[in-house]
Amino acid sequence: AGRFEVYDPETGEAARPAPLELYGRSKLEQECCFSHVSHVPVTILRFSSVYGSRLRLNDGEATIIAKLIGAIQRGESPELYEDGLQGRDWVYVGDIVEAVQRIIAGELTSRIINVCSGELTSLLTACQLINATLGSSFRPTVIGGHRAGDMRHCLGDTTLVQQLLGRSPTPFAA
Question: Is 1 exposed, middle or buried (0-12, 13-18, 19+ CB in 10 A)?
């Protein structure tokens, strides 16, 4: 399973790969290794930004959503780069589990599938939703600047994952 950083963040599975940083490049190299296997079908699942109830909030590898939740739970205002309007396509971990189960149980074919929600949520909106869920009111601090390797928006095409699941993926706001 890879992540969306391997291609232009606003296109689908067939887009020309264009990693923004080393992590994305490593995922692309893994895809290239497996996509050329001809003697066994390989399905590559590209996971969008994953969220769920068991996110790791306190380690250096925490995702942006985990960092936002962690800051709000600690009573701190989350810090956002740029203007806070950069968007992410968060996918619920239950949708990932279901997609993997369906791939395992289904017909083996070589393909690439984005496992995403197909809905763009800004970081500012995510903070509002987290506050509403946790019953808090911490406003994020927009510090500006830009982090090297960060993309402005990441939005996946849900066409294939909808076919796989037989339904639309769970939106972040649900």
Answer: middle
Question: Coil, strand, or helix at residue 131?
Answer: helix
Cβ proximity of 131 and 75 under 8 Å: no
Q: Looking at the predicted structure, is the pLDDT value of residue 6 above 70?
A: no
Question: Bridge partners of 2?
Answer: 46
107 in Cβ contact with 66 (< 8 Å): no
0.70 exceeded by pTM: yes
Mean pLDDT in residue range 38-64:
82
Q: How far is CA 142 from the centre of its chain?
A: 22
- The distance in angstroms from the start CA to the end CA of the chain is 25
Closest CA to 155 of 1, 24, 7: 7
Cα(68)–Cα(172) distance, rounded to whole angstroms?
Answer: 14
* Tokens 């500006």 sit on residue: 144
- Per-residue confidence (pLDDT) for residue 150, from 0 to 100: 81
106 SS3 class = coil
Angle of helix 123-134 versus helix 64-73 axis, rounded to 10 = 40
